[in-house]
Amino acid sequence: MIDQLIRTPFTDLTGVRHPVAQTGMGWVSGPRLVSGTANAGGLGILASATMTFAELEQAIIEVKGRTDQPFGVNLRADAGDAKDRCRLLIDHGVKVASFALAPKPDLIAMLKEHGIVVMPSIGAAKHAVKVASWGADAVMVQGGEGGGHTGPVPTTLLLPTVLDAVDIPVIAAGGFFDGRGLAAALSYGAAGVGMGTRFLLTRDSAVPDAVKRLYLERGLTDTVVTAKVDGMPHRMLRTDLVAELEETGTLKRLGPTVRRTLEFKRDTGMSWLALAKDGREMRKAQGRTLGQMALAANTPMMLKAGLVEGDTTAGVLASGQVVGVIDDLPTCEELVDRVVTRAADELRRAASYVV
Fold first, then answer.
1. Domains of the chain, with CATH numbers?
2. How far is CA 241 from CA 41, 53, 247, 264, 331, in A?
3. What confidence tens digit (pLDDT) does each residue in 234-255 have?
4. pTM above the 0.85 mark?
5. For 205, which DSSP code?
6. C-alpha torsion angle, residues 227, 230, 231, 234 (rounded to 10)
7. pLDDT tens-digit map of 302-314
Protein backbone atom coordinates (compact mmCIF):
# COMPACT_ATOMS: atom_id res chain seq x y z
CA MET A 1 0.00 0.00 0.00
CA ILE A 2 1.55 3.29 -1.11
CA ASP A 3 1.51 6.65 0.64
CA GLN A 4 -0.26 9.64 -0.85
CA LEU A 5 1.51 10.73 -4.03
CA ILE A 6 -1.12 13.08 -5.48
CA ARG A 7 -3.20 15.53 -3.44
CA THR A 8 -6.23 17.17 -5.08
CA PRO A 9 -9.39 19.01 -3.97
CA PHE A 10 -11.15 15.62 -4.17
CA THR A 11 -8.80 13.93 -1.70
CA ASP A 12 -9.06 16.93 0.63
CA LEU A 13 -12.86 16.99 0.38
CA THR A 14 -13.47 13.29 0.99
CA GLY A 15 -10.51 12.40 3.17
CA VAL A 16 -9.30 9.59 0.89
CA ARG A 17 -5.61 9.08 0.17
CA HIS A 18 -5.79 8.83 -3.64
CA PRO A 19 -7.91 10.64 -6.28
CA VAL A 20 -9.57 7.44 -7.49
CA ALA A 21 -13.24 6.52 -7.04
CA GLN A 22 -14.93 3.17 -7.62
CA THR A 23 -18.34 3.94 -9.08
CA GLY A 24 -21.63 2.67 -7.61
CA MET A 25 -22.51 -0.23 -9.92
CA GLY A 26 -25.77 -2.04 -9.18
CA TRP A 27 -25.23 -5.65 -7.99
CA VAL A 28 -21.44 -5.12 -8.23
CA SER A 29 -20.48 -2.41 -5.73
CA GLY A 30 -21.17 -4.38 -2.57
CA PRO A 31 -19.41 -4.30 0.82
CA ARG A 32 -16.42 -6.40 -0.28
CA LEU A 33 -15.54 -4.22 -3.27
CA VAL A 34 -16.28 -0.95 -1.48
CA SER A 35 -14.17 -1.82 1.56
CA GLY A 36 -11.39 -3.15 -0.68
CA THR A 37 -11.29 0.18 -2.52
CA ALA A 38 -11.44 2.17 0.72
CA ASN A 39 -8.62 0.18 2.30
CA ALA A 40 -6.57 0.79 -0.86
CA GLY A 41 -6.95 4.53 -0.36
CA GLY A 42 -9.64 5.24 -2.96
CA LEU A 43 -13.29 6.14 -2.55
CA GLY A 44 -15.48 3.04 -2.63
CA ILE A 45 -19.13 3.77 -3.40
CA LEU A 46 -21.83 1.34 -2.28
CA ALA A 47 -24.64 0.87 -4.83
CA SER A 48 -28.00 1.04 -3.05
CA ALA A 49 -30.53 1.25 -5.88
CA THR A 50 -30.91 -2.54 -5.95
CA MET A 51 -31.11 -2.84 -2.14
CA THR A 52 -34.03 -2.65 0.22
CA PHE A 53 -33.74 -0.17 3.07
CA ALA A 54 -32.81 -2.97 5.48
CA GLU A 55 -30.25 -4.41 3.05
CA LEU A 56 -28.65 -0.99 2.67
CA GLU A 57 -28.29 -0.55 6.41
CA GLN A 58 -26.76 -4.02 6.74
CA ALA A 59 -24.37 -3.29 3.85
CA ILE A 60 -23.24 -0.03 5.47
CA ILE A 61 -22.63 -1.83 8.76
CA GLU A 62 -20.63 -4.52 6.94
CA VAL A 63 -18.45 -1.96 5.14
CA LYS A 64 -17.76 -0.21 8.45
CA GLY A 65 -16.77 -3.57 9.90
CA ARG A 66 -14.27 -4.10 7.08
CA THR A 67 -12.67 -0.63 6.96
CA ASP A 68 -12.20 2.52 9.00
CA GLN A 69 -11.61 4.59 5.87
CA PRO A 70 -14.10 7.00 4.22
CA PHE A 71 -16.59 5.54 1.74
CA GLY A 72 -19.73 6.61 -0.07
CA VAL A 73 -23.23 5.41 -0.91
CA ASN A 74 -24.95 5.93 -4.26
CA LEU A 75 -28.63 6.83 -3.90
CA ARG A 76 -31.60 7.27 -6.21
CA ALA A 77 -32.76 10.84 -5.73
CA ASP A 78 -36.17 9.93 -7.16
CA ALA A 79 -36.75 6.97 -4.81
CA GLY A 80 -39.84 7.21 -2.63
CA ASP A 81 -37.74 6.69 0.52
CA ALA A 82 -34.80 8.90 -0.52
CA LYS A 83 -35.04 11.05 2.62
CA ASP A 84 -35.09 8.00 4.87
CA ARG A 85 -32.01 6.65 3.11
CA CYS A 86 -30.25 9.99 3.52
CA ARG A 87 -31.07 9.84 7.22
CA LEU A 88 -29.50 6.37 7.30
CA LEU A 89 -26.25 7.79 5.90
CA ILE A 90 -26.33 10.50 8.55
CA ASP A 91 -26.97 8.04 11.38
CA HIS A 92 -24.07 5.81 10.30
CA GLY A 93 -21.59 8.58 9.55
CA VAL A 94 -21.13 7.82 5.85
CA LYS A 95 -18.72 10.32 4.31
CA VAL A 96 -20.07 10.74 0.74
CA ALA A 97 -23.53 10.63 -0.83
CA SER A 98 -23.49 10.19 -4.60
CA PHE A 99 -26.55 10.35 -6.83
CA ALA A 100 -27.28 9.02 -10.29
CA LEU A 101 -29.80 11.85 -10.77
CA ALA A 102 -29.71 15.37 -9.39
CA PRO A 103 -30.96 15.48 -5.77
CA LYS A 104 -33.28 18.31 -4.88
CA PRO A 105 -31.92 21.23 -2.82
CA ASP A 106 -33.61 20.01 0.36
CA LEU A 107 -31.80 16.65 0.20
CA ILE A 108 -28.48 18.36 -0.45
CA ALA A 109 -29.02 20.73 2.47
CA MET A 110 -30.04 17.87 4.76
CA LEU A 111 -26.85 15.93 4.01
CA LYS A 112 -24.50 18.91 4.10
CA GLU A 113 -25.91 20.00 7.46
CA HIS A 114 -24.46 16.78 8.85
CA GLY A 115 -21.10 17.04 7.12
CA ILE A 116 -21.79 14.58 4.30
CA VAL A 117 -20.14 15.35 0.96
CA VAL A 118 -22.74 15.49 -1.84
CA MET A 119 -21.50 14.33 -5.26
CA PRO A 120 -24.13 13.87 -7.98
CA SER A 121 -23.29 12.23 -11.31
CA ILE A 122 -24.11 14.42 -14.29
CA GLY A 123 -23.99 14.13 -18.06
CA ALA A 124 -23.95 17.76 -19.20
CA ALA A 125 -22.44 21.09 -18.14
CA LYS A 126 -25.88 22.63 -17.52
CA HIS A 127 -26.68 19.88 -15.01
CA ALA A 128 -23.40 20.53 -13.21
CA VAL A 129 -24.24 24.22 -12.98
CA LYS A 130 -27.67 23.40 -11.54
CA VAL A 131 -26.48 21.06 -8.79
CA ALA A 132 -23.58 23.37 -7.94
CA SER A 133 -26.04 26.23 -7.46
CA TRP A 134 -28.02 23.98 -5.12
CA GLY A 135 -24.95 23.33 -2.96
CA ALA A 136 -23.40 20.12 -4.33
CA ASP A 137 -19.78 19.76 -3.17
CA ALA A 138 -18.49 17.96 -6.28
CA VAL A 139 -19.76 16.26 -9.42
CA MET A 140 -18.84 13.12 -11.29
CA VAL A 141 -19.13 13.44 -15.07
CA GLN A 142 -19.32 10.32 -17.22
CA GLY A 143 -18.61 10.42 -20.93
CA GLY A 144 -20.10 8.15 -23.55
CA GLU A 145 -17.33 5.54 -23.20
CA GLY A 146 -18.68 4.58 -19.79
CA GLY A 147 -20.77 1.51 -19.02
CA GLY A 148 -24.40 1.41 -17.92
CA HIS A 149 -26.62 4.39 -18.64
CA THR A 150 -24.59 6.75 -20.75
CA GLY A 151 -24.73 9.68 -23.15
CA PRO A 152 -23.37 10.32 -26.65
CA VAL A 153 -20.54 12.76 -25.84
CA PRO A 154 -17.05 11.34 -25.18
CA THR A 155 -15.26 12.22 -21.95
CA THR A 156 -12.55 14.20 -23.77
CA LEU A 157 -15.18 16.69 -24.93
CA LEU A 158 -17.65 16.53 -22.05
CA LEU A 159 -15.09 16.98 -19.28
CA PRO A 160 -13.70 20.37 -20.36
CA THR A 161 -17.17 21.82 -20.83
CA VAL A 162 -18.06 20.87 -17.26
CA LEU A 163 -14.74 22.16 -15.90
CA ASP A 164 -15.38 25.49 -17.61
CA ALA A 165 -18.89 25.69 -16.15
CA VAL A 166 -18.32 25.07 -12.42
CA ASP A 167 -15.70 25.77 -9.77
CA ILE A 168 -16.33 22.71 -7.58
CA PRO A 169 -14.22 19.51 -7.84
CA VAL A 170 -15.03 17.45 -10.94
CA ILE A 171 -14.41 13.70 -11.06
CA ALA A 172 -13.98 12.32 -14.57
CA ALA A 173 -15.48 8.93 -15.46
CA GLY A 174 -15.91 6.98 -18.67
CA GLY A 175 -12.86 5.45 -20.35
CA PHE A 176 -10.45 5.33 -17.39
CA PHE A 177 -8.48 2.24 -16.42
CA ASP A 178 -4.84 3.16 -15.68
CA GLY A 179 -2.44 5.85 -14.47
CA ARG A 180 -2.15 7.52 -17.85
CA GLY A 181 -5.88 8.23 -17.73
CA LEU A 182 -5.64 9.68 -14.22
CA ALA A 183 -2.73 11.90 -15.29
CA ALA A 184 -4.69 13.05 -18.34
CA ALA A 185 -7.80 13.83 -16.30
CA LEU A 186 -5.77 15.84 -13.78
CA SER A 187 -4.11 17.71 -16.66
CA TYR A 188 -7.55 18.66 -17.97
CA GLY A 189 -8.33 20.11 -14.54
CA ALA A 190 -10.30 17.26 -12.98
CA ALA A 191 -9.74 16.41 -9.32
CA GLY A 192 -9.77 12.64 -9.82
CA VAL A 193 -11.21 9.78 -11.83
CA GLY A 194 -14.07 7.34 -11.38
CA MET A 195 -13.73 3.79 -12.69
CA GLY A 196 -16.43 1.12 -12.95
CA THR A 197 -15.51 -1.69 -15.33
CA ARG A 198 -11.90 -1.60 -14.12
CA PHE A 199 -13.03 -2.22 -10.51
CA LEU A 200 -15.58 -4.83 -11.62
CA LEU A 201 -12.61 -6.74 -13.02
CA THR A 202 -10.71 -7.12 -9.74
CA ARG A 203 -10.35 -10.04 -7.37
CA ASP A 204 -12.33 -8.08 -4.75
CA SER A 205 -15.37 -7.91 -7.04
CA ALA A 206 -18.08 -10.48 -6.25
CA VAL A 207 -19.01 -10.94 -9.93
CA PRO A 208 -18.74 -14.68 -10.79
CA ASP A 209 -15.32 -15.70 -12.10
CA ALA A 210 -16.80 -17.18 -15.28
CA VAL A 211 -18.40 -13.81 -16.05
CA LYS A 212 -15.14 -11.98 -15.37
CA ARG A 213 -13.38 -14.28 -17.85
CA LEU A 214 -16.03 -13.44 -20.43
CA TYR A 215 -15.30 -9.73 -19.92
CA LEU A 216 -11.55 -10.29 -20.25
CA GLU A 217 -12.04 -11.97 -23.63
CA ARG A 218 -13.73 -8.90 -25.14
CA GLY A 219 -12.20 -6.28 -27.42
CA LEU A 220 -12.67 -2.55 -27.91
CA THR A 221 -15.60 -3.02 -30.30
CA ASP A 222 -17.43 -5.60 -28.19
CA THR A 223 -19.81 -3.24 -26.38
CA VAL A 224 -23.04 -1.81 -27.69
CA VAL A 225 -25.35 1.03 -26.62
CA THR A 226 -29.01 0.01 -26.69
CA ALA A 227 -32.28 1.43 -25.39
CA LYS A 228 -34.07 -1.90 -25.75
CA VAL A 229 -33.43 -3.00 -22.16
CA ASP A 230 -35.07 -0.15 -20.26
CA GLY A 231 -35.88 2.53 -22.77
CA MET A 232 -32.74 4.59 -22.09
CA PRO A 233 -29.27 4.36 -23.74
CA HIS A 234 -27.32 1.69 -21.90
CA ARG A 235 -23.79 0.45 -22.75
CA MET A 236 -23.22 -3.27 -22.24
CA LEU A 237 -21.31 -6.21 -23.64
CA ARG A 238 -22.44 -7.39 -27.05
CA THR A 239 -24.01 -10.82 -26.44
CA ASP A 240 -26.51 -13.09 -28.16
CA LEU A 241 -29.18 -11.90 -25.71
CA VAL A 242 -28.51 -8.24 -26.51
CA ALA A 243 -28.63 -8.99 -30.26
CA GLU A 244 -31.98 -10.71 -29.72
CA LEU A 245 -33.32 -7.75 -27.73
CA GLU A 246 -32.22 -5.37 -30.48
CA GLU A 247 -34.27 -7.33 -33.02
CA THR A 248 -37.34 -7.87 -30.83
CA GLY A 249 -40.37 -5.59 -31.04
CA THR A 250 -42.00 -3.88 -28.06
CA LEU A 251 -44.99 -6.22 -27.92
CA LYS A 252 -42.79 -9.32 -27.83
CA ARG A 253 -40.81 -7.84 -24.93
CA LEU A 254 -43.98 -7.08 -22.94
CA GLY A 255 -44.28 -10.55 -21.36
CA PRO A 256 -40.70 -10.68 -20.03
CA THR A 257 -41.02 -7.07 -18.88
CA VAL A 258 -44.07 -7.86 -16.75
CA ARG A 259 -42.37 -10.96 -15.34
CA ARG A 260 -39.27 -9.03 -14.32
CA THR A 261 -41.40 -6.30 -12.74
CA LEU A 262 -42.97 -8.96 -10.52
CA GLU A 263 -39.52 -10.37 -9.71
CA PHE A 264 -38.23 -6.90 -8.80
CA LYS A 265 -41.27 -6.27 -6.59
CA ARG A 266 -40.71 -9.59 -4.82
CA ASP A 267 -36.95 -9.08 -4.33
CA THR A 268 -37.29 -5.53 -2.99
CA GLY A 269 -40.38 -6.15 -0.91
CA MET A 270 -41.94 -3.00 -2.39
CA SER A 271 -45.70 -2.60 -2.44
CA TRP A 272 -47.56 -1.77 -5.64
CA LEU A 273 -48.18 1.68 -4.17
CA ALA A 274 -44.43 2.20 -3.60
CA LEU A 275 -43.68 1.00 -7.13
CA ALA A 276 -46.25 3.40 -8.53
CA LYS A 277 -44.83 6.27 -6.47
CA ASP A 278 -41.30 5.50 -7.67
CA GLY A 279 -42.56 5.35 -11.25
CA ARG A 280 -44.27 8.72 -10.88
CA GLU A 281 -41.09 10.28 -9.49
CA MET A 282 -39.03 8.68 -12.27
CA ARG A 283 -41.36 10.10 -14.89
CA LYS A 284 -41.19 13.55 -13.30
CA ALA A 285 -37.40 13.55 -12.82
CA GLN A 286 -36.32 11.89 -16.06
CA GLY A 287 -39.16 12.67 -18.43
CA ARG A 288 -39.66 8.99 -19.26
CA THR A 289 -42.73 7.81 -21.10
CA LEU A 290 -45.03 5.19 -19.57
CA GLY A 291 -43.50 2.60 -21.90
CA GLN A 292 -39.98 3.48 -20.78
CA MET A 293 -40.99 3.25 -17.13
CA ALA A 294 -42.36 -0.25 -17.75
CA LEU A 295 -39.12 -1.25 -19.46
CA ALA A 296 -37.08 0.20 -16.56
CA ALA A 297 -38.08 -2.80 -14.44
CA ASN A 298 -35.97 -4.92 -16.81
CA THR A 299 -32.68 -3.35 -15.80
CA PRO A 300 -32.14 -4.49 -12.19
CA MET A 301 -33.32 -8.05 -12.81
CA MET A 302 -31.43 -8.53 -16.08
CA LEU A 303 -28.27 -7.12 -14.53
CA LYS A 304 -28.74 -9.40 -11.53
CA ALA A 305 -29.07 -12.45 -13.78
CA GLY A 306 -25.78 -11.68 -15.50
CA LEU A 307 -23.65 -10.09 -12.77
CA VAL A 308 -24.84 -12.02 -9.71
CA GLU A 309 -26.20 -15.31 -10.99
CA GLY A 310 -23.78 -15.57 -13.91
CA ASP A 311 -26.53 -16.42 -16.39
CA THR A 312 -25.43 -14.64 -19.54
CA THR A 313 -28.27 -16.19 -21.54
CA ALA A 314 -30.89 -14.34 -19.45
CA GLY A 315 -28.95 -11.34 -18.18
CA VAL A 316 -27.12 -8.31 -19.50
CA LEU A 317 -23.58 -7.27 -18.63
CA ALA A 318 -23.04 -3.52 -18.29
CA SER A 319 -19.59 -2.51 -19.47
CA GLY A 320 -17.52 0.45 -20.49
CA GLN A 321 -15.45 0.40 -23.67
CA VAL A 322 -12.30 0.00 -21.56
CA VAL A 323 -13.18 -3.69 -21.30
CA GLY A 324 -11.20 -4.06 -24.52
CA VAL A 325 -7.91 -3.02 -22.90
CA ILE A 326 -8.20 -4.85 -19.57
CA ASP A 327 -6.46 -8.22 -19.32
CA ASP A 328 -6.00 -9.03 -15.63
CA LEU A 329 -7.71 -9.28 -12.24
CA PRO A 330 -5.68 -7.40 -9.61
CA THR A 331 -6.81 -6.74 -6.06
CA CYS A 332 -8.17 -3.25 -5.38
CA GLU A 333 -4.94 -2.41 -3.56
CA GLU A 334 -2.79 -3.54 -6.49
CA LEU A 335 -4.97 -1.61 -8.93
CA VAL A 336 -5.04 1.67 -7.01
CA ASP A 337 -1.31 1.50 -6.22
CA ARG A 338 -0.30 1.07 -9.84
CA VAL A 339 -2.78 3.64 -11.17
CA VAL A 340 -1.56 6.33 -8.78
CA THR A 341 2.13 5.46 -9.16
CA ARG A 342 1.91 5.54 -12.96
CA ALA A 343 -0.03 8.81 -12.87
CA ALA A 344 2.60 10.47 -10.69
CA ASP A 345 5.33 9.28 -13.05
CA GLU A 346 3.44 10.58 -16.09
CA LEU A 347 2.82 13.97 -14.47
CA ARG A 348 6.52 14.31 -13.62
CA ARG A 349 7.46 13.34 -17.18
CA ALA A 350 5.03 15.86 -18.63
CA ALA A 351 6.30 18.59 -16.27
CA SER A 352 9.83 18.03 -17.59
CA TYR A 353 8.69 19.35 -20.99
CA VAL A 354 7.90 22.78 -19.56
CA VAL A 355 10.64 25.36 -20.26
1. 9-208+328-351 (3.20.20.70), 219-307 (no CATH)
2. 38, 31, 10, 20, 30
3. 999 999 888 888 776 555 545 5
4. yes
5. -
6. -40
7. 889 899 999 988 7
